[in-house]
């Protein structure tokens, strides 16, 4: 499933994504109902996320872009030219060019589970940087990915912006950091580098607003998961029975998103019956926030030594450079 060029989505004879169904059914059976956040990103969900990144309340994208714009020369100095930039996730139309413009890379390798996004963003990048070899790889980067032969001998820089690492519980985040080391060839040749974005702990009001915006875009993003379950898994979930909730969990330093039942409800998904009491929730996302220390500890646990970090002017977000 995770090797280069192999179709990754495993569908049954009715075209249902087996992993989606398994995750939803298992998650709805739990005491605290939960569906992994990765299922937000169907076409509508990805568009809503794009919209979120432009919201007044959602500062992380702006803050990280500011760092890339303002501090590019500094990290270009530390990183040096002629590296293959391996991006975990398809490049964003804004951040990736900012990095590629500053560091004079030898190649660009976007890794993504979704072939469509991958091809689109690789083509756009190719047009922007005509001389740069671009090697898109369709793969699940949660496991070690075999890089194309042309790239293997080059020095590597992993790029993982957006604080996507924050959407994983620490155990999964450490697994991913270790997989990244393996993908980047940490044990054969020159030590790879990693440039990673991490959102910082701040007051709960700012964080809760970032995940519960006034226009209701984040609410729509959360509720889109219910629409997706209904559409793809023969669900009968009454979407209007749910409220979007974003709350700061101080014990684990994370924003949690939930879908809270506004009344007692019963519904079916894939032929199974489920019940929820008023006030009961489906936990749909964690977005961990970091301090200097917790970021360093996580990186070290994943096999990376932090070298330098840069913050935006408002000190809301960090870009961290680490070496394997
Ligand atoms: C993709 N990820 C880093 C976003 C975040 O901030 O955790 C997803 C998101 N969820 C709600 N708003 C944005």
UniProtKB/TrEMBL annotation:
Gene3D superfamilies: Vaccinia Virus protein VP39. It is an enzyme of class 2 (transferase). Its EC number is 2.1.1.44. GO terms for molecular function: L-histidine N(alpha)-methyltransferase activity. It holds the Pfam family Methyltransf_33. GO terms for biological process: methylation. Keywords: Methyltransferase, Transferase. The keyword Zinc does not apply. Residues 20-323 form the Histidine-specific methyltransferase SAM-dependent domain. This is L-histidine N(Alpha)-methyltransferase. It comes from Qipengyuania soli. The lineage of its organism: Bacteria, Pseudomonadati, Pseudomonadota, Alphaproteobacteria, Sphingomonadales.
């Amino acid at each position: 499933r995770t090797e280069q060029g192999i179709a990754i989505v495993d569908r049954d004879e009715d075209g249902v994504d087996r992993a989606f169904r398994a995750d939803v059914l298992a998650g709805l059976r739990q005491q605290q109902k939960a569906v992994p956040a990765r299922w937000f990103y169907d076409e509508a969900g990805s568009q809503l996320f794009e919209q979120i990144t432009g919201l007044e309340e959602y500062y992380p994208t702006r803050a990280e872009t500011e760092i890339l714009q303002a501090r590019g020369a500094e990290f270009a100095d530390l990183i040096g030219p002629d590296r293959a930039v391996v991006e975990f996730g398809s490049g964003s139309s804004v951040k990736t060019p900012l990095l590629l413009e500053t560091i004079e890379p030898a190649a660009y390798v976007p890794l993504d589970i979704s072939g469509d996004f991958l091809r689109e963003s690789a083509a756009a990048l190719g047009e922007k940087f005509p001389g740069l070899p671009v090697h898109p790889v369709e793969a699940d980067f949660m496991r070690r990915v075999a890089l194309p032969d042309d790239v293997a001998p080059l020095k590597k820089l992993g790029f993982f912006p957006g604080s996507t690492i924050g959407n994983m519980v620490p155990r999964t985040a450490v697994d991913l950091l270790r997989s990244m080391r393996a993908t980047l060839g940490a044990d054969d040749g020159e030590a790879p580098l990693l440039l990673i974005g991490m959102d910082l702990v701040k007051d709960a009001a700012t964080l809760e607003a970032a995940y519960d915006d006034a226009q209701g875009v984040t609410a729509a993003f959360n509720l889109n998961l219910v629409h997706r379950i209904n559409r793809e898994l023969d669900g009968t979930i009454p979407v209007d029975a749910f409220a979007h909730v974003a709350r700061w969990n101080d014990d684990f330093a994370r924003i949690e998103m939930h879908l809270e039942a506004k009344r007692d409800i019963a519904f079916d998904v894939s032929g199974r019956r489920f019940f929820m009491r008023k006030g009961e929730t489906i936990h749909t996302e964690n977005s961990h926030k970091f301090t200097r220390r917790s970021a360093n500890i996580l990186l070290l646990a994943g096999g990376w030594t932090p070298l330098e970090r840069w913050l935006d002017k408002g000190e809301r977000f960090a870009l961290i450079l680490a070496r394997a």
